[in-house]
Every structure is written in C-alpha cells, then in structure tokens.
C-alpha cells in the first residue's frame, strides 16, 4: 500500500489496485486499514487533481471517491475521468455524508458513478463491493490475456500458413525448373556430342581437300568453320544455364549439405534474368569460403527473396550489389540496391508478416518475413541498413559451423 502520489515502480504489474480519494486524512487512514488485507494495493489521494494524476499513472480496479471535497468535488473528478479514453472505464463508487436524495444520486450516476455508499460506512458492505470489483478486474485481465494469446496464436497460424504456401510455390517452381532443365539437357547432350564429332571430322578432312580451292569453295569452307566455332560458345552457355537451373531446383529442403554460395547466387540471377534486362547493373563480390554448410533449397529461397525485393525497389534502373564471404566465425550474404531506401522507423516492421511498403496488390509482405525464418533456421540474423550512396542493404549472417551459436557484436 502507498500514500499519496509516491512512486509505484516497485509495485507488481499484475497486482490490482484501489484508489481512495478523500480530503480528510482520518478518512483515508480508516479506509486504508479497512482494505489492507484484501490482496490489493491501496492508493490514497487527498484531492481531485491528485486523483486524476493517479488515474493516469496506473490501472485501478475501482475508485472510492468522496463527493464533498474543496476545489474539485467528486462529480467533477468523475466527469474528467469519463472524458479521458484511458480512464473512462474505471468503476467509481461515490462516498458521501450528504442526505440520500434522489437528485444527488441521479447526478452521481449521470457523472459516471456505478454505485453510492453513504457515511457512516458499513465496513462489510464496503469490503463486499470492493471485492466484487477486484474479482471483476481479475476476470477482465484474464480475458485480455486470453485474447492476446489467441491473437498471437492466430498471427502465428497465418504466418505459418503463408510460409507453407510460399514453400509449396517454391517447391513447385523447383520441380518445374528441374523438369525443364532435364528436358533441355537430353537434346543438349545429343547436340554437343554431334557438334564435337562434326568439328573433329572437318578438322581431319581439311588436309585431304584438293588445293588450291576455288574462291567459292574456299569462302564456303571458311564460313562453315566460323559458324561451327560460333556454335560452341552458344552450346556452352546453354549447358551452363542448365547447370544453374538444376542448382536452383534442389528439392532437398530437409537436408543440410555443403554447397557453393556462388552457384546459389548465380542460379537465382539466372532465374530472375528477365527482370534484370535494361537498366539494372549487377555487381558481385564472392569472398572466401565459397562452400558453406546450409539448407540449400531454403537458402536459395532466401537469396531469391532478397534479390527480388532489391529489383522491385529500383523500378527497372539502378545497381544491384551482392557480396558474400566470412568475417570471423560468421558467414555473410549482403544484397544492396540503389532504390529509394526504407525509412529508419519502418526497418524493424518490414520483418513482420504481411507488412509491406509496396502499393496494394503488388506485395504480400511475406518475402522478408520468410527470409527471416530461414535465417533463424540457420541460427543467424538479418539486418537492414542504408548504404553510403543511398538505397537499402540487407545482410544475412549465420555461423559457418552450424549448431554452434555465435555472438555478434
């Protein structure tokens, strides 16, 4: 229990409180003694202004408010309390020594009182009424806590469902990409084999050609060899594309393995290549080591989310920078863009599920949230910052030795 407006910093936040307001010190002491064994804090106020200050400092289960006070009387206190959204729902019981007149009672209820007690007070009745409001307050707190838990569970359910949907989409994309890569790879192997045969046979045939060749035959022979040499790089590019598609389409989400981060990044850039054409320049800086122990498919998904967000932020023109490498025991993948950036006050919120800075219909608000979940699965962290030249930089960091927690300064 405390007297007046002394500090309540040492008061347990779950313990209910009763505010007693009276300008007579003897009445305050008597009411305090009457309520001291009721498992509640009794806060005393000697005036209306002091009572209003106390109401703003903490939550009260009930207010025992004297009507007749100098300066601001009980009716005015109740009126001000009801006008403030923070205090308007606090139950108020008026205490008065005045006659029990109908007009006074109606005025009291009109100003926001829930009950009247007339002096001299009956201790049993007073304690009984206070106990009712203490129990009501406890029930309200339980309901509020239950609602909070339900809301938290509902939000987690929404997030989990969204993540499952996103994972299913990524799995479907992986299967599609894997199928396309397989269908391309078979005829590609056939073409590469025959291209090599043609190249070797023409090389073997050249010494057997009659000399000198006519101008027309010489031009045709030279053109055929030039076209054959040009086909080679094209076929190699297709083969490299197939390798990157197969790298991206890993379906081993539940397995941890050592993979090349460079291959992961390049495979994602290949998948998103159609969105990079035009005014977006890509700069990469692959550091040491390249081979990292991770959940390959999930990390691909995280990298794709980061790069896709960076592309969206630049609206078709800018510089996309990707750097990887270790710093001590931590491995970093940093994706930066030269877009408009994210305001500092929103950087924490962008990790929340369903929060997006994109216009309605252009973003789900799940990209960074899912990326954050993937990073946590790797025992890592995700940080957003503004690079010196503007834009946004997103860094994901996780321990090189998975299974060991590393403190990041």
Biggest sheet, spatial arrangement of strands = 2-1-3-4-5
The stretches of 5 or more residues where confidence is low (pLDDT under 50) are: 1-12, 359-365, 405-409
CATH class of one domain: Alpha Beta
Helix content: 40-55%
Write down the Rg. 37 Å
Helix-and-strand structural type? alpha/beta
Termini separation comes to 44 Å
- Name the beta content range: 15-25%
What's the β-strand tally? 12
Description:
Helix 2 runs parallel beside helix 3 (about 75-85). This protein has a 5-stranded parallel sheet with strand order 2-1-3-4-5, with helices on both faces. Strand 4, helix 4 and strand 5 (about 115-120) form a beta-alpha-beta unit. The radius of gyration is 37 Å and the shape is rod-shaped. It is built from 10 helices and 12 strands. Among the domains are: about 15-120, Rossmann fold (3-Layer(aba) Sandwich), CATH 3.40.50; about 255-409, Heat Shock Protein 90. Helix content is about 50%, strand content about 20%. It has about 400 residues and is α/β, with parallel strands linked by helices.
């Amino acid at each position: 229990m405390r007297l007046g407006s002394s500090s309540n910093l040492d008061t347990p936040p779950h313990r209910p409180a009763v505010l007693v307001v009276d300008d007579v010190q003897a009445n305050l002491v008597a009411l305090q003694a009457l309520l001291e064994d009721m498992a509640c804090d009794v806060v005393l106020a000697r005036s209306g202004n002091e009572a209003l200050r106390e109401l703003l400092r903490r939550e009260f289960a009930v207010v025992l408010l004297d009507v007749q006070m100098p300066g601001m009387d009980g009716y005015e206190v109740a009126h001000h309390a009801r006008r403030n959204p923070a205090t308007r729902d606090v139950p108020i019981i008026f205490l008065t020594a005045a006659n029990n007149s109908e007009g006074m009672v109606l005025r009291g209820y009109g100003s926001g009182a829930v009950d009247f007690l007339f002096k001299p007070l009956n201790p049993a009745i007073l304690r009984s009424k206070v106990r009712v409001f203490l129990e009501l307050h406890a029930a309200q707190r339980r309901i509020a806590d239950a609602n909070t838990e339900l809301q938290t569970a509902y939000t987690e359910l929404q997030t989990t469902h969204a993540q499952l949907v996103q994972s299913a989409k990524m799995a479907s994309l992986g299967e599609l990409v894997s199928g396309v890569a397989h269908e391309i790879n078979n005829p590609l192997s056939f073409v590469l084999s025959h291209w090599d045969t043609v190249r070797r046979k023409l090389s073997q045939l050249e010494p057997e050609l009659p000399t000198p060749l006519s101008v027309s035959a010489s031009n045709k022979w030279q053109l055929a060899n030039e076209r054959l040499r040009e086909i080679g790089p094209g076929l190699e590019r297709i083969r490299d594309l197939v390798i990157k598609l197969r790298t991206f389409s890993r379906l081993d989400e539940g397995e941890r393995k050592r993979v090349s981060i460079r291959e992961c990044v390049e495979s994602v850039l290949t998948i998103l290549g159609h969105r990079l054409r035009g005014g977006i320049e890509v700069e990469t800086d692959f550091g040491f080591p390249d081979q990292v122990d991770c959940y390959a498919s999930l990390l691909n998904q995280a990298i794709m989310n980061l790069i896709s967000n960076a592309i969206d932020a630049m609206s078709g023109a800018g510089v996309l920078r990707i750097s990887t490498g270790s710093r001590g025991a931590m491995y970093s993948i940093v994706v930066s863009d030269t877009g408009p950036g994210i305001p500092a006050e929103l950087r924490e919120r962008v990790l929340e599920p369903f929060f997006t800075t994109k216009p309605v219909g252009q973003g789900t608000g799940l990209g960074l949230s899912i990326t954050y979940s993937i990073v946590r699965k790797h025992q890592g962290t995700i940080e957003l910052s503004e690079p010196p030249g503007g834009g946004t930089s997103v860094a994901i960091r996780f321990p090189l030795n998975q299974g060991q927690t590393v403190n990041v300064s």
